[in-house]
Amino acid sequence: MLAVVGTVPVENFPLVSGEVRLEKDALLLEGKCIPVNRGTPALLAAAIVAGEILGNPPPFAYLVGDIGTGKGSRMLYDYLTKHLLLEGFGVLTFHYLQPDVDWHNRVLFAVEAMKPRPALIADAGFMYAAKMSGQAGAYDLFTPDAGEIAFLADEEAPHPFYTRGFILHEDNRVPELIIRAYEHDNAARCLLVKGKSDYVASCEGILATVDEPLVEALEPVGGTGDTVTGIVSALVASGMRVEQAAVIAARVNRLAGLYANPTPATQVIDLIRHIPRATAEVLKESQPWRLRSKAQGSSSLFALEINMFPH
Amino acid sequence: MSFLSFLKKRRPRKEQARDRGILVFENTSEVIRAENALKAAGWMVKVKGPPPEIRTGCDLVIEFPLIEELNVLRVLESASVKPLKVVPVQSALLEPVSLFHTKDFGDYLMIRAANMKLTVDKKTLTVVNISGGGCPDVPFLAQEMVGKRLSEAPSPRAIGHTLCGYALQLAYEEMQRQCSR
């Protein structure tokens, strides 16, 4: 089962936890109705609709209101250190939370007590704190965008706002930034770098590149990074290996974006509506490879997957 | 050029840093309020990243001429924004990202500052999207700004709280500058 930890952009929204459902473009959790715009609600909505295709149960969420003061995030951090459920989660995804190294470390300490230890995915503010704490290696997947990979590559920067000029991101420099992030131990075991081309990488280098379909108008659309993190979380929760899930999630997100026929003014909910169709199609496309992999006695489905997207 | 200004120019860089102090606040929104108050009072202060020993993860500090501490504190007191502490600069402060990237989508213009992107409809000057960033005020800022004209939308400086909010403010100012040409 997938659990997601994050925030909603409403100051007095109380701390709630429980199973989340999606109804009429809004999340329902503990009697609360949360509109899906961007941020953690967009991640959850994407995880729910992709998870339905995969046969996943509804995700569990720990949510609190925070408009950037950090008050809600600190309340949620405190809650997690005391009440994090220690069983039943295969994947734990951390998202829009106020970056705070001290609280990050306390939460990670609580997570280490979970049996079995879930796959850990971090994006947004919690990923910033994970990098700054020096414990990036404790995570299975980070999902940075092109700007955030520059931040991970800069061993000095405590936030993307301070990424030094000589490291600043340009899409064509992503591969070298990935190497630099691993050299300084500032990357998770696997990276899914979102951008004009999506890169899946590990400390061994770039494992796969996904660059089609390319829909330029998606770049300004807020929340498209949140949806890909939601999709990859659902795929990992279904039992898929992290590296393979990252490749498939990148493809699903791009395809859903294409089906949304976006302009720079499109809102992310329009993309989320197309995720079920895109998930079904990408999984179906992957199926012959899965079968072939078994028929050929290959132990590595992923090896075949990455050959589909040579870089 | 006066004798004193000559001396000042010749002093090594590290020596110059000792002239400076930093104001540390509880959160970024207080930094933004303090910066507004000090700039309104004519101080040429700079917002920077804190030195490693006092970093928590999402912070800004204000760098100011240390010798003017009392005057600076007086301005802040009258603006009801009190720093947590005032410390001399001991190590290098981080410089915020200052480069902008502009992308023209035909009917829409997108400006990126650091990790934040702001997109407007060129005809109506309506904010159509905000993307990037990872601090919790990003979804809040998007909620409050998207769908409003640049002139009517609240500025990130007014309602944001974090470094991502601060980066969005830079994009917002650059967008205003480009759209007013």
In short:
The complex is a heterodimer of chains A (311) and B (181). Chain A is an alpha/beta fold and 311 residues long.
Largest interface, C-beta within 8 A: A-B, 60 and 51 residues
Radius of gyration of chain B: 18 Å
Structural class of chain A: alpha/beta
| Strand composition percent of chain B | 15-25%
Query: Order of strands in the sheet with the most strands of chain A?
Result: 2-6-1-7-8-9-10-11-12
CATH-level-2 architecture of chain A: 3-Layer(aba) Sandwich
Question: What integer is the average pLDDT of chain A?
Answer: 90
Largest β sheet strand count, sense and barrel closure of chain B:
4 strands, antiparallel
| Count of individual helical segments of chain B | 7
The profile of the biggest β sheet of chain A is:
9 strands, mixed
Structure description:
The complex is a heterodimer of chains A (311) and B (181). Chain A contains eleven helices and twelve strands. Chain A is of the alpha/beta class and 311 residues long. Chain A has a single domain (2-307), classed as Ribokinase (UDP-N-acetylmuramoyl-L-alanine:D-glutamate ligase, 3-Layer(aba) Sandwich), CATH 3.40.1190. In chain A, the strands form two sheets. Chain A has a nine-stranded mixed beta sheet with strand order 2-6-1-7-8-9-10-11-12, with helices on both faces. Chain A has a three-stranded antiparallel beta sheet with strand order 3-4-5, with helices on one face. Chain A is globular. In chain B, the strands form two sheets. Chain B has a four-stranded antiparallel beta sheet with strand order 2-3-1-4, covered by helices on one side. In chain B, strands 5-6-7-8 form a four-stranded antiparallel beta sheet. Helices cover 36% and strands 22% of the residues of chain B. Chain B is elongated and about 50 Å long. With 181 residues, chain B is an alpha+beta fold. The chains are: A alpha/beta (311), B alpha+beta (181). At the A-B interface, α3, α4 and α5 of A face β6, β7, β8, α5 and α7 of B.
